[in-house]
Amino acid sequence: MELREFYYLIVLAEEQSISRAAERLSVSQSSLSQFLKQFEKRMGAPVFIRTKKGVQPTAAGQILISRIQQIIRASQRAQQEFHDGESAGKGSVFFGISPLRGQHILPPILKKFYETHSDIRVNIREDGNFALQQKICEGTLDLALSVCQAVSIEGIRLEYLYKDEVVLVTPRSHPLMEHMHTAEDGHMWVSLEEVSQHECIISDEDTTLGHLVRNTMGALDLPLFCRHDNMTAAFAVSMACQGLGLAFMYRSLCEEREDVVYLSLGEQRIYIRLALLLPEAEHHSRAVLAFAQMLRQELQEEASD
Question: What is the architecture, at CATH level 2, of domain 1-86?
Answer without folding.
Answer: Orthogonal Bundle (1.10)
